[in-house]
Amino acid sequence: MNTTFLTMLRRLVRAGHLKVTIASGEEAVLGDGSGPPLALRTLDEAAEKAILRDPGMAFGEMYVEGRLVVEEGGIFDIIAMMKANGLENAATVSNTVTALLHVAEQQIKSRLPANRNRHNVAHHYDLEGKLFDLFLDQDWQYSCAYFEPPGISLDEAQLAKKRHIAAKLLLRPGQTVLDVGSGWGGMVMYLCEAENVDVTGITLSGEQLKVSRDRAVRRGLGNRVRFELQDYRTMEGRFFDRIVSVGMLEHVGMANYGGFFDKMAQLLAPQGVMLVHAIGQAQKPWATNPWIEKYIFPGGYMPALSEVVPAIEKSGLMIRDVEILPMHYAWTLRAWRERFTARKADAIRLYDEKFFRMWEFYLAASETAFLYDKLLIFQIQLSHQLESVPYNRDYIGERETVLRTFEQARPPLEPVTF
Asked: What is the pLDDT of residues 52-85, one digit of tens each?
């Protein structure tokens, strides 16, 4: 077993400098010596067998359980080095079969009639609020920031994201807006205050609902915004001038894009505009990483545009603009990871060391996915009619300039309470 495990790692680590110590005490230095020295230790042979059989699942599990220990460098450095080398180099007949079984399982689960949306949302978003306070910006934006111009802070980049989306929505005072997957309410409050519009935010998270409503009341927006515990699929009898959805399409499920965009087409007024901001992939992925799907985002799936566009076309909506943001989420995740690990002791007090390692691994693996696995952010602007959106993109920058002036006079945000 020791020989087999080390053989897999030798095949994988061609570039870099990795010292590996396995459970038997045997050591090996892998790679070509380039890059910073890293060191990894396995504590038992069962952990090595698990990783050999199912690296996509077991590598993260063994790290979380403390049976795979990073002795030099960090878990981000280890994952990044392995991905830079090309994980396909570690493929064997056994772990390839296991990976295909994970794909088949997710494909089947995505097509089951049972509605697991609320359960899946609660698994992640109903965690202790203080956890998110460890690493998010002041407004608790839990989606990709917009680092324009490059080098700005996380808080500035999250504000730039809201500004960029607001500009694309072409809002007018008095309009009605629906935020599908409204999180902790930051986008709803920004749109309401910036453009004097009436905004409804819907969520499936009871914790997010409570926080959002409290924030709106404390900010004096109780009569201009509302938050509802609502599944978009059951909304009826209402039209909205504008619809925005940020970071929600990833939770719709690979078999449900048709239903999602059909419902959005029903809810969007004839002259309306919609903006979808979501994580996507450059090629059809078929399945989510099994560790992420099990422990972090059950039911989550990040589609390729080729999976989304046919559903949009069938709904009758027209694509008016598509913007790809390839690196902004990697920068966002780096900021989150650095903030989270800097407050390790606080995270452990909230939960325990295993939970800290689980979220550290999640943030590190997600960051490397945007660096090496062709993940990206797409923003798709939609409308029913051609004249709803200008024929050039100049209006975006022009509106952002106006919104910057609004932001300078906007009262500062209060800390999120929970």
From this structure: 888 889 999 999 999 999 999 999 999 999 999 9
Residue 360 CA, distance from chain mean position? 15
Q: What is the CATH number of domain 2-109?
A: 3.30.1050
CB atoms within 10 A of CB 335: 22
Beta-carbon-side half-sphere exposure of residue 413 (alpha carbons within 13 Å): 21
State the Cα–Cα distance between residues 376 and 369, nearest whole angstrom.
9
Domain map (residue ranges) of the chain: 2-109, 118-409
Residue 158 has pLDDT above 70, yes or no: yes
Classify residue 307 by burial, with Cβ atoms within 10 Å: 0-12, 13-18, 19+.
Answer: middle
**Owner of token pair 């870099």:** 16
Tokens of 302: 């990040």
Question: For 95-109, what is each residue's pLDDT tens digit?
Answer: 454 544 444 455 555
Q: Model-level pTM?
A: 0.92
48: phi > 0 → left, psi -120 to 50 → alpha, else beta; which?
A: alpha
* The pLDDT of residue 240: 98
The CATH number of domain 118-409 is 3.40.228.10: no
